[in-house]
Specification:
It is elongated, with a radius of gyration of 14 Å. The chain contains 4 helices and 2 strands; from the N terminus they run H-H-E-E-H-H. The two termini are 19 Å apart. Helix 1 crosses helix 2 and helix 2 runs antiparallel to helix 4. It has 84 residues and is of the alpha+beta class. A hairpin with a 2-residue loop joins strand 1 and strand 2.
Length: 84
């Protein structure tokens, strides 16, 4: 992520992280995940054992976050590239 920040600048990088966190939070919460904290470019998420295993929430969360980011790719690419 340091390379991305260097290419697009700190303000745009900050905006990118805010959008990414916003766009992925819904998937995490819908899978009963608990957001412990945001550290740099990561979202530290955990589950109580019963909630994480129910409906395979912990695995489903990964897939929902991935889908969200793939779906939002057409938005992110033109806004957060160094060539714009």
């Amino acid at each position: 992520s340091t390379a991305i920040a260097e290419k697009i600048g700190s303000t745009q990088y900050f905006n990118l992280l805010n959008e990414l966190f916003n766009d992925t939070t819904g998937a995490i919460l819908s899978c009963k995940g608990e957001i412990y904290q945001y550290v740099g470019d990561e979202v530290v998420t955990s589950w109580k054992m019963t909630k994480g295993m129910a409906d395979t929430n912990c695995l489903r969360c990964f897939e929902l976050v991935r889908k969200e980011l793939v779906d939002k790719g057409p938005h992110y690419r033109p806004v957060y590239t160094a060539d714009r």
